[in-house]
């Protein structure tokens, strides 16, 4: 069994750190959009205000997802060209997608509760 070169280990740690940072960034962006665009309007008793807030939030989420997917595609093309030796290079895209998906679960639950009442 032979060890990985030191620069490979350092590069792996950079990918993992970037993944952690992207996870937190995407989590924050999604949560802020949920709390500022969606939650306030869903608390309103006015159906029109609820619909407006839902449309604003959905528009933001779609735009954010499109931007994120574009950025991740560019990242994958650039990093893929350098042929990384280990799989840590996929940590940032996976972390970004997870950081985006988890808050969406919260939002969907809140939308369902608002629809039921």
What composes the largest sheet? none
Helix fraction, binned, reads: over 70%
Mean pLDDT: 89
The structural class is mainly alpha
Strand content bin: under 5%
Q: Which geometry do the CA atoms define?
A: elongated
How many whole angstroms does the radius of gyration measure?
19 Å
Give the helix tally.
3
Distance between the termini: 62 Å
Residue runs with pLDDT of under 50 for 5 or more positions: none
Order of helices and strands: HHH
Number of strands: 0
How are the secondary structure elements laid out?
Layout: H1 6-42, H2 47-81, H3 91-116
Description:
The protein is mainly alpha-helical. Helix content is 84%, strand content 0%. The protein has three helices and no strands. It has helices spanning 6-42, 47-81, 91-116. The longest helix has 37 residues, at 6-42. It starts with 5 loop residues before the first helix and ends with a helix. The model has no long low-confidence stretch (mean pLDDT 89).
Brief summary of the model shown:
With 117 residues, the chain is mostly helical. It contains 3 helices and no strands. Helix 1 packs parallel to helix 3 and helix 2 runs antiparallel to helix 3.
Relevant terms:
single chain; mainly alpha; 117 residues
């Amino acid at each position: 069994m032979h060890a990985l070169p030191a620069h490979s280990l350092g590069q792996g740690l950079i990918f993992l750190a970037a993944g952690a940072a992207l996870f937190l960034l995407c989590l924050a962006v999604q949560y802020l959009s949920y709390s500022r665009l969606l939650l306030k309007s869903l608390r309103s008793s006015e159906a029109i205000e609820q619909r407006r807030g839902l449309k604003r939030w959905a528009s933001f989420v779609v735009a954010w997802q499109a931007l994120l997917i574009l950025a991740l595609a560019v990242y994958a093309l650039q990093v893929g060209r350098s042929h990384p030796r280990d799989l840590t290079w996929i940590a940032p895209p996976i972390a970004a997608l997870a950081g985006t998906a988890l808050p969406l679960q919260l939002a969907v639950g809140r939308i369902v509760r608002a629809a039921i009442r």
